[in-house]
């Protein structure tokens, strides 16, 4: 009798929602999943290119994982393997979503790998849908440090930038491994003491950046003198394949929280494939772009919380992965993505958060007992 | 030095020098030379500092390094202890070979603790052994599977050894098993000592056994002696001593155990519907297992492994009331007789058996007695008899006036009026309360559970957006409605007290276990208002709490308010103060809502909550809901529909125009340019929200005003800021104080900074770590205790130490059929990834007592984590270059790697391997011990192979090799590989030989394929054999076979896959023999070389000297040979003389030689003689010396003693 040999039970899920987190959590908790009904009713059923690319990325980093798509791509079965990590990996993220889409699950995954990860990701570095690579560098990586991730080996280098239709950006991400995380009590949001930022422009004039910076400063002038926004003008091969520009702002508070926003504008050329899905977005003038980004940042600051709305999901994930101690964090209003993350965490890791609104500040305080995720793939000597 | 150390603690007895006798005389002589003899070290150091200085800086450095190293070795990484409540009873495992007195020992111990005679020892037996400690005795089955399982849960192992017989294999095996599975505390017990008649022999045997035990465990391990039996029981005094030793023991869990929840079932029930069983006797069963949760917290829906059965997911987990609770925490010296509880359902003792929804009363004739109550309660007992819980239950059933239906009729729902609404609400709550009380009575649950229920009813209110009724308000309503009054016995010291209530005209008596209603309990602060001044309250404790409750229930609204203000005396004075609490309070109510928004409604909601929700939806105004929440509700509604929502973490909200001044001003305080005090307030006040939240109760309308005066409220905050900040500081300090170890704290007070400085040098980092851990722990406790029971269980799972009922569905019927109470059931939780299968790499060592090496691919039975299974390992060793080379057998005295397939276990997990499970085997059964190094799916083990070929055609340095490969494809794979002949000529595989170049088949049947062209550094011979050495990967077999020992009669031995040797033995198959492998004497004939032939052309090219000279043979001998020599007479004489002289000389020499020989022999004989003598003499001397030394030593010893 060899019960259970080679037989795996799959956790059944539906729809394409939070595909990234499902894959990530399935890998971390080593549960096999099968996702059905992926956009069955859509005009273009099945997985999108970026989702397939994500699966390929997971396959690259993990050892022995098994992914099976059905013919129409409406169903995926995923059996996770061991997270290996490794050096000098290369992945082409494609052009349907930006690198930020891939980075979000990747940085959590790589923490629990056998070997430290360093990977070169190619694709779109900045777009308006996903957090830009600048945001990851300025906000996300410092956040990891709070959970006990070592500083050395934690790096994101932007080799070249690329915006929406053409892409051509390249970054190098290196993430160290951890044995386990550290529970945090992070409820002191502090006061904003400085605002930093970076604008970029590829294949367009530097003047646009200066305009954007000027308009953004105009908004901050009422509030804070300590505002520095740097420019990052790229030319030649470093500028990718399409023209565009954008801005990423980060506010640092007295208690060491980072709150960031970013926007990007790209001149979408005659690329019909992309346009089929989403209507053509009109190009925002640089002045408006600066204003928009600055307003969005102030909006995030107004929300309160120790992280911005984009990082809520990541914050919850990290809290849930902590050892079984109480983690306590304060965020602003829960974003839909954050709520989705909470649900996924409950489903995969069995961690439920206690969610209490704090009326005086209109923020939400979340508490959880971590699931005690440990890096088992690391070899003991 | 002695004087120094003595000055701190207890002074040692000072040395008393001899006053008389030879040693005194000696001393006198010495002391006359050195007058500083009777000075202390300190004084001497002062007098002669140079003598105490270091002579060598290197030496000093080395010494210092050594002390530092020693210091460091003492330290262990501090680990956090996550037991927050009462710990589960410690498991005392009694192990020993058969007929050594295991059950008798348990019986004696139980008798000692509880004064009860246990008829039979079956399953775990829980007893209360002290005020703070419970023990669970488990008898270890005398069988290797049982031993392995038992070693995984034992906290203390009592190893029984038959003193008259000596150590048996079981004990030694068990010690090894314990070692790998995280060694618990150990104690050896010698029994059967009354078989010794001779006291001296007994003493010697004891000594011998003790030292053997020490070598097996550690020096100084405790070994008890049970000297005999009186009335069939061990001696009282000895059992008492043993109990004392057990009671002072400290327990530490291994890392595996503290990371996995586990449970030793002390009760086992089959709960399959009977009709299903009747239909099919062999249908899969549903079973329930009961036991204390240990290790770590267990969450609902977790997966578990039942040892000997398999993996199952928990169909249901319920926490039950502790069947064997600790006595109350009240101060008293010892346990009262009535508190000496014990619980052993499998052994058939204990009257009450609890289930999730029922209580079974099992009354043995000689156990008929009523549940214990305290003397204090006797005052309250009008009948003078102590009422049993069951009795109370029955009596209360008789007293019921109204049925539930009647009550339902009475209650009514009014949608518009406020007051009646409250009433109905209260009714709801009351019903809840009633239910809970009934339930309580049935379950004999403790007080805090009841209050937990209350708190949930409070939550019910909370769900209602307009519900501001606090718990006490509802009580108040009850008060004037139902003439409800609560009488509480003033003392809650006793173990089991009663809680008498007059409720709706009938009396209810609730059993309250004092031990459980401890102050500062988690749930009570949810509804008892005076909790926020926690410190004061903690001091007063429980009775105070309840009495204040009394106050409120009897009092009117006004008195309540008074009460309230009394409670918040510290932030007195401001009229609008309460409003701020109000808002906080409403919001604290909402947290459940927010959780529901995120997670959906929990399944276990009472009806009242649902009703409240409906209510909520129907007549809810947006007004009372926070903005974001309303939004979220809407958001959720849409989200639930679409499962294909775009996966995007960005969420764009409608931007405000931040150019306008007032909009900008609204977030001014979030910047450093703004008001710092307001900003800090923002960060701090809400930390204490939960405590403050319940502090205020107010009316509904007041909320509106609260909303109205929002700005005023802000000002209040401002004013309140300073006290609240103080609160924060105080809270922080309190946590810190709790966290600090006691000695540190003390010293902190005494010495302050100075002390800290020195401490930092010693183990600053270590202390910091410890402090951090302790802080985290205190924070965990504080945060978790804030939550109500249901939420807490949802968040952290069931706590360690709770008594759980696990329901498991679809287990094989054999588990029920062959259930044997003598074999405890171990249920262990499975962590992430531990249920999936994969390859594991372990560092393995054959046990030194196992007399055979292990063979690769021979199945072994391993025990890893909770599991036991059979698997096929491949042994390997890591080469210098990192390659894992397969080994056919394990090395004799070395570690090697073992790769096998099976359910994954995390690294550092210990493994024990056995090959046979039979009980009657003489030999040591444990074959190997190992530890998991890593699990990786790609296990690459390489094996060396030699391909052998023979030349079939030789060109100059090229040869065609046959028989090495079987196909041209294979040759293609090996192109460029190095080959070698036996004689050492190196070469290389080129390509498959073409047909044209001499690759003609000699015979028709010969295969054309697989002939390789190789080149060599020299020409090879036809007689050469060509080797190719290569590495090939070895596949690890994907096989594992769980040991389902619980699914068969325990008497049968489990039989798994057999080893090849076993199969051969059974079927009489001889070991296959390769003739070539046999060693034969090597015969080497002298090699005959052919004459050297130098080709003509070469000869021509050679220089003359090297040219072979072609000299013809002479027919005639040379002239010198042929010519005769005739000497002259003189010459002849001279020649003769010379010959004679020569002869004489030779003769002389011969003589001389003989003489010398003789002389030498004589000399040698003399020498040996001398040596013999001297050796004898030396031996004598040595003997004398030793004797003297021994004498001296013994005298010294005597002197010392």
Number of E-state strands of chain B: 36
Structural class by sheet pairing and helices of chain A = alpha+beta
Main sheet: strands, sense, barrel of chain A = 4 strands, mixed
Q: Helix share of residues of chain A?
A: 25-40%
Mean pLDDT of chain B: 74
**What's the CATH topology label of the domain at 192-303 in chain A?**
Dihydrodipicolinate Reductase, domain 2
Number of strands of chain A: 18
Distance between the termini of chain A: 35 Å
Regarding quaternary structure, what we see is: heterodimer
- Which two chains share the most extensive interface? A-B, 111 and 100 residues
Low-confidence stretches of chain B: 1-7, 371-383, 417-579, 603-640, 685-725, 742-761
Q: Identify low-pLDDT runs of chain A.
A: 1-5, 270-279
Strand-residue proportion of chain B:
15-25%
Main sheet attributes: strand count, strand direction, barrel closure of chain B: 9 strands, antiparallel
Protein name (chain A): RNA 3'-terminal phosphate cyclase-like protein
Subcellular location (chain A): Nucleus, Nucleolus
Domain RNA 3'-terminal phosphate cyclase insert (chain A): 188-302
Domain RNA 3'-terminal phosphate cyclase (chain A): 13-355
Explain what you see.
The complex is a heterodimer of chains A (381) and B (1201). Chain A has helices at 19-28, 49-61, 99-111, 133-146, 206-220, 272-277, 286-303, 312-320, 336-349, and strands at residues 11-14, 33-36, 62-63, 66-69, 76-79, 82-83, 86-92, 117-123, 155-160, 169-175, 185-186, 192-202, 227-234, 244-253, 258-266, 326-331, 354-358, 363-369. With 381 residues, chain A is α+β, with helices and mostly antiparallel strands. Chain A has a four-stranded mixed sheet, covered by helices on one side. A four-stranded mixed sheet of chain A has the order 7-8-10-9. In chain A, helix 1 (19-28) runs parallel beside helix 3 (99-111). Chain A is globular, with a radius of gyration of 21 Å. The two termini of chain A are 35 Å apart. Chain B has 1201 residues and is α+β, with helices and mostly antiparallel strands. Chain B contains 39 helices and 36 strands. The two termini of chain B are 22 Å apart. The model of chain B is unreliable at 1-7, 371-383, 417-579, 603-640, 685-725 and 742-761 (pLDDT under 50). Classes of the chains: A alpha+beta (381), B alpha+beta (1201). At the A-B interface, helix 1, helix 7, helix 8, strand 16 and helix 9 of A face helix 23, helix 25, helix 26, helix 27 and helix 32 of B. Chain A: It is found in: Nucleus, Nucleolus. Chain A: It holds the Pfam family RTC_insert. Chain A: This is RNA 3'-terminal phosphate cyclase-like protein.
């Amino acid at each position: 009798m060899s019960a259970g040999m080679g037989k795996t039970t799959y956790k059944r899920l539906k729809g394409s929602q939070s595909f990234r987190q499902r894959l990530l959590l399935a890998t971390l908790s080593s549960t096999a999943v099968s996702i059905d009904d992926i956009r069955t009713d859509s005009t273009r059923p099945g997985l999108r290119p970026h989702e397939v690319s994500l699966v390929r990325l997971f396959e690259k980093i993990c050892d022995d994982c098994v992914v099976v798509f059905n013919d129409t791509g409406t169903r995926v079965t995923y059996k996770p393997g061991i997270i290996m990590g490794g050096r000098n990996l290369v992945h082409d993220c494609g052009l349907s979503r930006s690198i930020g889409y891939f980075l979000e699950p990747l940085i959590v995954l790589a923490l629990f790998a056998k070997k430290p990860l360093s990977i070169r990701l190619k694709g779109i570095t900045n777009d308006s849908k996903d957090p830009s690579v600048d945001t990851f560098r300025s906000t996300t990586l410092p956040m990891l440090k709070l959970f006990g991730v070592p500083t050395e080996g934690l790096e994101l280098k932007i080799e070249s930038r690329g915006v929406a239709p053409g892409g051509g950006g390249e970054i190098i991400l290196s993430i160290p491994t951890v044995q386990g995380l550290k529970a945090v009590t992070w409820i002191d949001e502090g006061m904003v003491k400085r605002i930093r930022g970076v604008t970029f422009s590829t294949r367009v004039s530097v003047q646009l950046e200066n305009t954007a910076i000027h308009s953004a400063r105009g908004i901050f002038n009422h509030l804070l003198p300590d505002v520095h926004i740097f420019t990052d003008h790229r030319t030649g091969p470093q500028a990718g394949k399409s023209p565009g520009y954008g801005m990423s702002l980060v506010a640092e508070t007295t208690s060491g929280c980072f709150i960031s926003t970013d926007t990007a504008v790209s001149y979408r050329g005659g690329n019909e494939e992309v346009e089929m899905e989403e209507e053509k977005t009109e190009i925002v003038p640089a002045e408006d772009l600066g204003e928009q980004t600055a307003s969005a940042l102030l909006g995030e600051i107004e929300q309160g919380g120790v992280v911005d709305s984009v990082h809520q999901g990541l914050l919850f994930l990290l809290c849930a992965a902590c050892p079984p101690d109480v983690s306590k964090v304060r965020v602003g209003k829960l974003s839909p993505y954050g709520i989705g993350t909470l649900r996924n965490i409950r489903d995969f890791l069995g961690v439920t958060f206690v969610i209490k609104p704090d009326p005086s500040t209109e923020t939400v305080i979340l508490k959880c007992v971590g699931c005690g995720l440990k890096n088992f793939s690391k070899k003991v000597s | 030095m002695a004087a120094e150390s003595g000055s701190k603690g207890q002074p040692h007895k000072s040395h008393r020098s001899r006053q008389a006798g030879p040693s005194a005389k000696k001393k006198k002589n010495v002391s006359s030379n050195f007058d500083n003899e009777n000075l202390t070290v300190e004084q001497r150091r002062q007098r002669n500092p140079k003598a105490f200085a270091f002579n060598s800086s290197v030496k000093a450095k080395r010494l210092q390094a050594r002390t530092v190293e020693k210091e460091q070795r003492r330290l262990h990484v501090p680990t956090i202890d996550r037991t927050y409540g009462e710990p589960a009873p410690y498991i005392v495992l009694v192990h020993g070979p058969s007929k050594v007195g295991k059950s008798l020992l348990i019986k004696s111990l139980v008798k000692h603790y509880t004064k009860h005679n246990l008829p039979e020892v079956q399953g775990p037996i829980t007893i209360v052994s002290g005020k703070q400690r419970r023990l669970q005795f488990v008898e270890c089955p005398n069988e290797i599977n049982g031993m392995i399982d038992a070693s995984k849960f034992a906290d203390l192992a009592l190893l029984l050894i038959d003193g008259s017989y000596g150590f048996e294999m079981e004990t030694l095996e068990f010690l090894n098993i314990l070692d790998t599975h995280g060694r618990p505390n150990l104690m050896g017990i010698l029994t059967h000592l009354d078989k010794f008649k001779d006291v001296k022999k007994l003493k010697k045997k004891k000594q011998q056994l003790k030292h053997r035990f020490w070598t097996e465990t550690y020096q100084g391990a405790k070994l008890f002696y049970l000297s005999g039996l009186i009335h069939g029981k061990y001696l009282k005094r000895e059992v008492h001593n043993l109990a004392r030793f057990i009671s002072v023991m400290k327990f530490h869990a291994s890392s595996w155990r503290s990371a996995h929840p586990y449970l030793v079932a002390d009760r086992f029930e089959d709960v399959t519907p009977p009709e299903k069983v009747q239909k099919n006797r062999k249908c899969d069963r549903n079973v329930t297992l009961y036991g204390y949760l240990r290790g770590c917290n267990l969450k609902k829906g977790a997966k578990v492994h039942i040892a000997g059965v398999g993996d199952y997911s928990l169909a249901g987990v319920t926490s039950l009331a502790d069947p064997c609770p600790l006595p109350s925490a009240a101060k008293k010296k010892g346990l009262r007789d009535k508190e000496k509880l014990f619980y052993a359902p499998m052994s058939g003792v204990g009257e009450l058996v609890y289930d999730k929804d029922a209580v079974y009363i099992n009354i043995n004739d000689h156990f008929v007695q009523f549940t214990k109550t305290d003397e204090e309660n006797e005052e309250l007992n009008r009948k003078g008899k102590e009422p049993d819980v069951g009795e109370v239950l029955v009596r209360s059933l008789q007293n019921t006036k109204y049925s539930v239906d009647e009550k339902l009729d009475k209650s009514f729902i009014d949608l518009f009026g406020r007051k009646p609404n409250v009433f109905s609400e209260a009714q709801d709550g009351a019903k809840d309360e009633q239910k809970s009380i009934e339930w309580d009575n049935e379950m004999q649950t403790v007080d805090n559970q009841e209050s937990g229920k209350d708190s949930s009813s409070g939550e019910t209110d909370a769900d209602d957006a307009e519900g501001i009724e606090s718990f006490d308000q509802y009580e108040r309503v009850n008060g004037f409605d139902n003439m409800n009054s609560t009488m509480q016995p003033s003392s809650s010291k006793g173990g089991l007290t009663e809680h008498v209530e007059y409720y709706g005209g009938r009396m209810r008596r609730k059993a309250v276990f004092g031990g459980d209603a401890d102050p500062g309990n988690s749930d009570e602060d949810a509804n008892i208002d005076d909790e926020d001044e926690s410190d004061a309250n903690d001091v007063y404790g429980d009775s105070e709490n309840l009495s204040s409750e009394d106050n409120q229930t009897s009092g009117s609204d006004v008195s309540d308010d008074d009460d309230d203000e009394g409670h918040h005396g510290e932030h007195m004075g401001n009229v609008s103060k309460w409003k701020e609490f109000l808002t906080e309070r409403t919001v604290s109510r909402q947290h459940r809502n927010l959780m529901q928004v995120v997670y959906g409604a929990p399944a276990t909601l009472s009806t009242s909550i649902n009703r409240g929700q409906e209510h909520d939806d129907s007549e809810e105004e947006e007004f009372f809901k926070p903005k974001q929440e309303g939004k979220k509700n809407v958001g959720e509604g849409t989200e639930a529909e679409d499962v294909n929502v775009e996966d995007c973490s960005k969420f764009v909200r409608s931007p405000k125009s931040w150019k306008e001044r007032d909009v900008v001003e609204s977030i001014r305080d979030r910047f450093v340019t703004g008001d710092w005090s307001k900003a800090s307030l923002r960060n701090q006040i809400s930390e204490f929200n939960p405590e403050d939240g319940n502090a205020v109760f107010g009316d509904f309308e007041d909320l509106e005003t609260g909303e109205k005066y929002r700005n005023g409220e802000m000002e209040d905050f401002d004013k309140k800021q300073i006290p609240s900040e103080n609160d924060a500081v105080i809270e922080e300090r309190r946590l810190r104080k709790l966290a600090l170890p006691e000695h540190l704290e003390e010293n902190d007070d005494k010495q302050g900074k100075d002390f800290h400085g020195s401490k930092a040098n010693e183990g600053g980092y270590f202390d910091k770590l410890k402090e951090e851990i302790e802080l985290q722990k205190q924070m965990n406790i504080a945060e978790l205790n804030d939550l109500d029971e249901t939420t807490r269980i949802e968040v952290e799972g069931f706590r360690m130490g709770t008594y759980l009922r696990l329901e498991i569905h679809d287990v094989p019927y054999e588990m029920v059929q062959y259930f044997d109470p003598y074999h405890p059931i171990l249920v262990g939780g499975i962590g992430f990834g531990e249920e999936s299968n994969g390859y594991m790499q372990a560092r393995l060592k054959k046990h030194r007592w196992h007399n055979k090496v292990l063979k690769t691919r021979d199945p072994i039975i391993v025990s890893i984590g909770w599991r036991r299974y059979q698997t096929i390992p491949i042994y390997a060793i890591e080469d210098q270059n990192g390659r894992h080379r397969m080994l056919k057998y394990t090395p004799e005295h070395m570690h090697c790697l073992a790769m096998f397939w099976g359910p994954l276990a995390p690294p550092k997990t210990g493994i024990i391997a056995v090959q046979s499970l039979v009980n009657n085997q003489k030999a040591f059964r444990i074959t190997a011990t190992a530890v998991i190094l890593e699990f990786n799916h790609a296990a690459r083990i390489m094996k060396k192979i030699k391909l052998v070929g023979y030349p079939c055609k030789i060109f100059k340095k090229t040869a065609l090799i046959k028989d090495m490969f079987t196909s041209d494809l294979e040759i293609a794979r090996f192109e460029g590989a190095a080959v070698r002949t036996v004689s050492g000529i190196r070469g290389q595989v080129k390509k498959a030989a073409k047909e044209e170049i001499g690759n003609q088949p000699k015979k028709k049947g010969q295969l054309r394929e697989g002939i390789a062209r190789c080149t060599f550094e020299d020409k090879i011979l036809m007689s050469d054999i060509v080797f190719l050495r290569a590495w090939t990967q070895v596949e690890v077999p994907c096989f594992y076979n769980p040991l389902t020992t619980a699914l068969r009669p325990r008497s049968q031995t489990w039989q798994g896959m057999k080893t090849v040797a076993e199969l051969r033995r059974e079927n009489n198959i001889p070991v296959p023999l390769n003739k070539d492998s046999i060693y034969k004497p090597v015969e080497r004939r002298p090699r005959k070389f052919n004459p050297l032939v130098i080709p003509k052309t070469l000869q021509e090219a050679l220089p003359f000297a090297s040219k072979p000279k072609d000299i013809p043979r002479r027919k005639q001998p040379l002239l010198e040979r042929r010519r005769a020599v005739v000497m002259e007479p003189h010459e002849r004489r001279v020649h003769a003389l010379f010959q004679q002289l020569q002869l004489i000389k030779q003769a002389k020499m011969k003589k001389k030689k003989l003489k010398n020989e003789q002389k030498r022999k004589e000399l040698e004989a003399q020498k040996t003689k001398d040596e013999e003598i001297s050796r004898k003499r030396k031996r004598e001397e040595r003997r004398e010396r030793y004797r003297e030394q021994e004498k001296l030593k013994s005298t010294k010893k005597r002197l010392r003693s």
